[in-house]
Amino acid sequence: MPDVLLDVQGLETQFRTPDGVVHAVNGVSFSVKEGETLGVVGESGCGKSVTMLSVLGLIPSPPGKVTAGKAFFNGHDLLQMPREELRHVRGAQISMIFQDPMTSLNPVLTIGRQLEEPLILHLGMNKKQASDRAAELLEMVGIPNAKDRLKDYPHQYSGGMRQRVMIAMALSCSPQILIADEPTTALDVTIQAQITDLVKRLRDEIGMTVIWITHDLGVVANLAKRVLVMYGGFIIEESPVKDLYANPSHPYTIGLLGSLPRIDEAERQRLYSIEGMPPVLYRKPEVCPFAPRCKWVMDRCWKENPMLTEVSPEHRVACWVDVKTGRAR
Q1: Does 140 have pLDDT greater than 90?
Q2: pLDDT band at 131 (very low <50, low <70, confident <90, very high)
Q3: Average pLDDT in the chain
Q4: Looking at the whole model, is its pTM more than 0.90?
Q5: How far apart are CA 221 and CA 214, in angstroms?
Q6: What is the pLDDT of residues 16-56, one digit of tens each?
Q7: CB-based contacts of 77-85 (< 8 A; 24+ apart in sequence)
Q8: pLDDT by residue (tens digit) across 60-83?
Q9: Strand order in the sheet with 20-33
Q10: Three-class SS string for the chain?
Q11: How far is CA 154 from each of CA 107, 112, 140, 158, 217, rounded to the nearest angstrom?
């Protein structure tokens, strides 16, 4: 049985703003095994990216602060690790692809310089070795004339090519975990498919663990083995990907799946819309955060926040209602 690589327990992260304290992540717990691909799904502001940035110590402080929790990686708690030690974990053992490659790449440094830096810092290569390896990495992610393109600057690359450079940079030190934070959001559909296929191919070749953050359940279906659905800073459903699509058990997950266009419907169906707005998290929710938008809401939902409970093997949901029957669990 594969070993657990990353084990996050009770993670809480807050941001101080002029309007009050925002409770962005509220007691998130999950684990990832070696070689697994985990999808993390939810709408903007639900805590997906903040969870992963908290684990890697990348939350800007101030205004952000991790107020509780543990994150064990290879037996060491990343949240208690000295900053200098954590720097050697980031990039070398856990890498992250960010959402917008234009703002993630330094516009005044060549692509070659930016690819070579982690190789020199983490692997101790000299300039010639790092340059040769950088060209190999660009070829690996499908950029032609790699040696010549090392001399170019980010603005000389298209959006899809910049994202390929970010993937090459993330894979440069052969990390154990690759975290992809909505890496296809700013790209057109054709390039999205190319980037997704590229990550799948490299994952299978290198055998790394992938955490894919997205709001697109269609991408997750094609990529992940297991899915976490987040809402209001909580994990509200956790399931193997096939079971999630066949048997969604949280009203929010049902709404997300209903908003996806389908080509296998016999008749054209109107897309589902979740009424209302996401919660404003100036207070940590003590009741179900989805209650104001839920058509199955009952009295208990307004009094108590449900815990994740098992509905089938490996499938857990945080809901007081059995959505199949409409009755209390």
Answers
A1: no
A2: very high
A3: 87
A4: no
A5: 11
A6: 999 899 999 999 999 999 889 999 998 888 889 999 999 99
A7: 79/54, 79/55, 81/57, 83/57
A8: 888 999 999 999 998 899 999 998
A9: 20-33, 4-17, 64-73, 76-77
A10: CCCEEEEEEEEEEEEEECCEEEEEEEEEEEEEECCCEEEEECCCCCCHHHHHHHHCCCCCCCCEEEEEEEEEECCEEHHHCCHHHHHHHECCCEEEECCCHHHHCCCCCCHHHHHHHHHHHHHCCCHHHHHHHHHHHHHHCCCCCHHHHCCCCHHHCCHHHHHHHHHHHHHCCCCCEEEEECCCCCCCHHHHHHHHHHHHHHHHHHCCEEEEEECCHHHHHHHCCEEEEEECCEEEEEEEHHHHHHCCCCHHHHHHHHCCCCCCCCCCCCCCCCCCCCCCCCCCCCCCCCHHHCCCCCHHHHCCCCCCEEEECCEEECCCEECCCCEEC
A11: 6, 10, 18, 8, 30
Residue that the structure tokens 């990550």 belong to: 199
For the record, the structure tokens of 174 come out as: 């052969």
pLDDT in tens, 186-207: 677 777 787 788 888 888 888 8
